[in-house]
Amino acid sequence: MERWLIVGLGNPGKKYESTRHNVGFMLVDALAERLGLVTGRQAFQGVLAQADRGGKHFSLLKPHTFMNLSGQSVGEAARYYKIPLERVVVVHDELDLPLGALRFKRGGGYAGHNGLRSIGDHLQSPDFIRLRVGVGRPPPGLSGANYVLAPFTRGESHCVQEVRVRGVEAVLHLADVGLPKATNILHALPHLGVE
C-alpha cells in the first residue's frame, strides 16, 4: 500500500491554536475529520493519526516540538515508515501569498521559514512537497514574527474555513492524481480572499 506522510506545521498549546502560524495544524485536523479520524496518539514527538483511503495509507502528523524544530518529528516519522520525499507533504503558512491562496511546490528554498528549514535538514533534502497556505503580509509596523503568531481576525474566519475545505481536497487530489495534475487543478482556482 502506498504510504503518504501529511504534516501540518504549527505550535502546540492553547495560546497558539488559532494563530496564522498554526494553519498547518488546522488543515491537517480538517483532513483527519474528512478521513473519519477523531483523535491521534503521541508518536514521533507529535500527534499522529492514520487512515487508509483508496489503496493509500495516510499518516497525519502534527509535530509538537514547536515550529523551529519540526524536522526532528518529521524526520523520525519519514524514516520509520520509509516514506520517500515525493510523498512527504508539509502544510504551512506562507507570508508571500495572499490570504486564501493555496499553492503546491516541490523543493526550493525556505523563504526564512525555520520550520521548513528544520525539515529539510532532517530529511537531508529540500525536495519534499509543500502545500503553501497564504496568510498575507503583515500591516506596516508589525513584524512578520508577531503577525504569524497573532490570531486570524473575525473577518478572516470565513476564508480560513474555506481554505480548510479546499486544502483537504487538494491533498486528496495530490494522492490520487500526482503532483503535476493536482497543481494544475489547484492553481487554476481563484484565491478565496476576504469578503
Q: Overall 3D geometry?
A: globular
The CATH class assignment is Alpha Beta
Mean pLDDT: 94
CATH topology: Rossmann fold
Give me the count of strands: 7
Q: What are the secondary-structure elements, in order, as H or E?
A: EHEEEHEEHEHHH
Strand ordering within the main sheet: 2-3-4-1-5-7-6
What is the radius of gyration computed over CA atoms, rounded to a whole number of angstroms? Answer: 15 Å
Described by strand count, sense and barrel closure, the largest sheet is: 7 strands, mixed
Q: What's the CATH H-level homologous superfamily?
A: Peptidyl-tRNA hydrolase
Domains, number: 1
Q: Structural class, please?
A: alpha/beta
